[in-house]
Write a structure and sequence with these properties.
Elements: H1 20-37, E1 60-62, H2 63-78, H3 84-99, E2 111-113, E3 119-120, H4 131-147, H5 153-166
Antiparallel strand pairs: 1-2, 2-3
Helix pairs in contact: 1-2, 2-4, 3-5, 4-5
Amino acid sequence: MIPSTLQAPDLPANVHKVDEDALLDVVQRQAARYFWEGAHPVSGLARDRQKTTGAPANDLVAIGGSGFGMLAIIVAVERGWIDRTAALSRLQGMLDFLESSQRYHGVFPHFINGRTGATIPFRRKDDGADLVETTFLFQGLICAREYFAGMATEEARLRECVNALLS
């Protein structure tokens, strides 16, 4: 369920007259909502090309998009739209799933199955490993590790899991 604080206010029909800060707020909330509400129900990772309405059977998750999703969750916590505890729980679930997902010498594939963690080939001759998408994921992981730097047990566990994935 999406927190009510992520619901962006409707923009007026004359959107070109909206204050820049108000517009930025709406865009940031909608981005956070996309990654929060549209996440895969098993892995919590970012579905590829997911709509925020309906619940299609879509197990295709994007590794790079999942890194973007981690960043969106951090922004949502910082802005007070998502509870820190809920964000930690979501991120930890994502990390636990990634730990058991298929990798190639530490490199993740472009796409994985959000239920099983198995590679979904990007192209017919895809060998699995995708350095660019893994880099986007790692950027999200590093930011999550640095943002959740508190003394709480849950935050320490998150940092340990991130360090394990990065090593």
